[in-house]
Design goal:
about 290 residues; alpha+beta; 6-stranded mixed sheet; globular
Length: about 290
């Protein structure tokens, strides 16, 4: 007869708790598979973030967006191992609209998670795999789980996976503990603004300096909603960041194709602002500094 250790029991409970938490977020679990290496869940997501435990809603709408969650156990001696090629497939799936999150459960049943951006960065850092193809994930960046926050993060990734993969500072800003530096916020906006201005250049070139000012003012407006420092100073900082990237760094910024299917500048701008506002709702007004 086999023996079962308490750590195994707690680890299994932790895995089950991840399943439970995903249900609390209003998701429908389309399918679930379990093996010695962890759980594999495919989620059908609600149209808006919801905390079912706290919400009075009796029904909520599911839209066509989906996500994938992989759950693995961590022991006191080592982080779980992962095949970089498997992780690369998850990132490819993310680019196609199905983001993958890796949840890591410790022996006490507590858990953290890695985003598709974390997985993408880890792939670039991973050492050459041994014969079994798996590498330890000790260098994988993970974040503490909090239900309302993760629900909004999941919602954002399901809408703008390629933008989140492309914006280098946004994923970490979404998970910042305490205040997020306003400089990082401006750099995120500048990434989007540079890409949009490149797309809309011909449209706004006819307006000259006036069109440029209007564009900068419009993008600054999204930062205004966070209640950061004075608008004039912020506008100058954003202008400086955009001009540096355009004129000196030759930085193309974030491609509009990562967040919009629109073909005209104004509708594409509306999509850019919608994306930024959704991201800033996750970061929250605690980002004031």
């Amino acid at each position: 007869m086999g023996n079962r250790q308490r750590q195994q029991y707690l680890g299994d409970l932790g895995e089950a708790e991840v399943y439970r938490e995903l249900l609390h977020l209003g998701a429908s679990i389309n399918y679930l598979t379990q093996s010695d290496s962890g759980w594999d869940l495919h989620l059908h997501l609600p149209s808006e973030p919801v905390d079912v435990v706290r919400s009075p809603l009796k029904t909520w709408t599911l839209d066509g967006r989906v996500a994938h969650v992989q759950v693995k156990k961590k022991t006191s001696r080592a982080a779980p191992k992962l095949d970089p090629e498997t992780a690369r497939g998850w990132v490819t799936g993310t680019r196609s609209g199905v983001p993958t999150f890796l949840f890591v459960v410790d022996e006490e049943g507590d858990f953290e998670y890695a985003t598709p951006k974390s997985l993408s960065e880890w792939i670039g850092q991973a050492s050459t795999p041994p014969q079994d193809g798996k590498v330890g994930t000790s260098r994988l960046r993970t974040y503490s789980y909090a239900r309302p926050k993760f629900g909004r993060v999941l919602h954002l990734w399901s809408h703008y996976p390629n933008a989140l993969l492309g914006l280098s500072k946004l994923d970490s800003a979404l998970h910042a503990e305490g205040d997020t530096d306003s400089t990082d916020i401006l750099e995120i906006v500048a990434d989007v603004a540079v890409g949009w201005l490149a797309f809309a250049g011909l449209t706004y070139a006819d307006e000259g300096a006036q069109g440029w000012e209007r564009a900068i003012r419009t993008f600054t407006g999204t930062v205004d909603e966070l209640g950061l420092s004075e608008g004039w100073a912020r506008r100058e900082l954003l202008r400086s960041a955009v001009e540096r990237r355009q004129n000196y760094d030759n930085d193309p910024g974030l491609s509009v194709a990562t967040y919009s299917l629109q073909s005209d500048a104004q509708n594409c701008l509306d999509d850019a602002l919608q994306m930024l506002r959704m991201a800033f709702r996750v970061i929250g007004t605690d980002s004031r500094r």
